[in-house]
Amino acid sequence: MLEHVLPLISSPWLYVIIFLLVAVDGFVPVAMSEAVIIGLGALSTTGPPHLVPLAVAAVAGGTAGDRISYYVGGKAGARITGGKLAAAKLVAERALLRQGSVALVIGRFIPYGRTATTLTAGSVALPMGPFLAASVVSSLLWAGYAIGLGRVGGLAFADSPLLAAAFGIALGFLLAGVHATVKRVARAFRRRPAEETGPVLVNSTGG
Length: 207
What we know:
The chain is mainly α. It has one domain. Helix content is 76%, strand content 0%. The protein has helices at residues 2-9, 13-25, 33-43, 51-76, 83-99, 102-107, 113-123, 128-156, 161-197. α2 (13-25) runs antiparallel to α3 and α5 (83-99) packs across α7. The termini are far apart. 38% of the residues are buried. Mean pLDDT is 74; it is low at 200-207.
């Protein structure tokens, strides 16, 4: 199978495809662009693709997709009322209120977080300057993260490109799972003191 894919990996058209894939993943979060970038990062340890154009395509696609998602959020964000994306959007609204554009950087590494935060930024009319700055920073960090995971897999399994790509992708899912677990545990500990304190009794006699 790999011999059929290698001609594309060696072609300049690969970077156009990566740009489009990452851009589309910003407002239609089913493109699995992170897994593709990780896999290509693994392959880059033994040959093409070249790291610099791969990173440039990923960052450019990230910022373009974020901008489209912002526009869609401004036009139709209020219509998202059901499913996982609606739940993620509600979390994103709270995060944007607390953290501002920093929430866009954090959301880039959370499942559905990129789409939710960029849509929400558009729906609440977050100023374009901070939005674009956060979009570029988050895209740079994400591209480095995804390519880095792939490189780790490529170095660990230099003789097997497919195994290297699979290892990098699995490591990415593992880190995402650990992050989600830590957040749930932290949220549970924040709730516990209030629950253990119980209702406050008021002395009705005023004494």
